[in-house]
Amino acid sequence: MNSSSPVAAFGSTTQHAHLKKEVFFSKGGWLIPARERALIDSISSGAATYGEVMPAGILRLLEMLSLDGSSTFCDLGSGIGRVALSAAMHSRAAGVVGLELSDSRLEQAEAAAEVLSGLGVPLRPTRFVSANLATCDLEAVAGATHYFMCSTAFGAALCRSLAERLSRCPSLQVLVTSRPLPPQPYLLKVGQIDGVEYSWIANGLAHVYVKSWASAPPAVLARFLCRDGVCWAPPAGPAEGAWRRGFVFGDDLLAVAPAAGQ
Questions:
Q1: How far apart are CA 210 and CA 172, in angstroms?
Q2: Which residues pair with 99 in a beta bridge?
Q3: What is residue 180's DSSP assignment?
Q4: Which residues have CB under 8 Å from 176's CB, separation 6+?
Q5: Helix (H, G, I), strand (E, B) or coil at 161
Q6: Domain boundaries for CATH 3.40.50.150 within the chain
Q7: What are the pLDDT digits (tens) for 60-84?
Q8: Which has the closest alpha carbon to 67: 75, 76, 79?
Q9: What single-letter DSSP state applies at residue 251?
Q10: Half-sphere exposure at residue 187, Cβ-oriented, CA atoms within 13 angstroms
């Protein structure tokens, strides 16, 4: 990864690991009081189980998302803040939000942010919010364009509820999850990212969803729909999409241009 990459704003995977050890001083986000674990599990059985994306996996996700000054990134179930603070360190997002129900994890995330600031690490504006993912107004609380959820331990009902509520958020552009959403009519899956390292698997997948073809960021669509100068043109209506030559990726839109010789 070269220095011009948007995720190279601060440090490397090695430095990231050092910060993980020095800044995230808890033994892990799974160490929460029994009352907090019971509260989280009451929302979605097993949701208090703690797992996370590893540093190299976070950088891979951020590179795919291509966050810029018009983007706000939100981690749904942000735990002790590793993903959110990584986005704050390594992206050009206008802001970063972490939503978490466990007060203990929120305190660790906020403490980590303070330590990073004290070390002089450049951070995008970041806030951590106490929120119940099953009931909160996601647009009001986060208002993000790009969402991530490490959803492997989330129940199907919670995932479906989040998809339904996110689909009604005017700001939503992309949702990335650590496991596929259950069958639902609210969001479209545009592809998946391989080689994402999690705490439980070294070569996992991340699944990418959008609200509609029209609202999806061109940079994200281009990563999944283009290959060797040929891109799949998403359907404009009920008709099926098609592979077209001359599909061009501009700053503001994806458009089908005439192929050479036509």
A1: 8
A2: 76, 129
A3: P
A4: 61, 64, 65, 146, 147, 148, 149, 193, 206, 207, 208, 209
A5: helix
A6: 6-216
A7: 999 999 999 999 999 999 989 999 9
A8: 75
A9: S
A10: 29
Backbone angles phi, psi at 14, to 5 degrees: -65, -45
Please give the Cα distance from 207 to 109 (Å, whole number).
25
Residue pair 223/192 in contact (Cβ under 8 Å)? The answer is no
Q: Which residues contact 42 (CB under 8 A, 6 or more apart)?
A: none
> Do 108 and 29 form a contact (C-beta atoms < 8 A)?
yes
pLDDT tens-digit series, residues 209-228: 999 888 888 888 888 887 77
Q: Identify the architecture of domain 6-216 in CATH.
A: 3-Layer(aba) Sandwich (3.40)
CA atoms within 13 A on the CB side of 243: 6
- Three-state DSSP class for residue 58: helix
Residues 6+ apart with CB under 8 A from 186: 163, 164, 166, 167, 211
**Among 92, 81, 200, 102, which residue's Cα sits nearest to residue 179?**
200
CA distance readout (Å), 174 to 1, 47, 219, 230: 24, 22, 11, 23
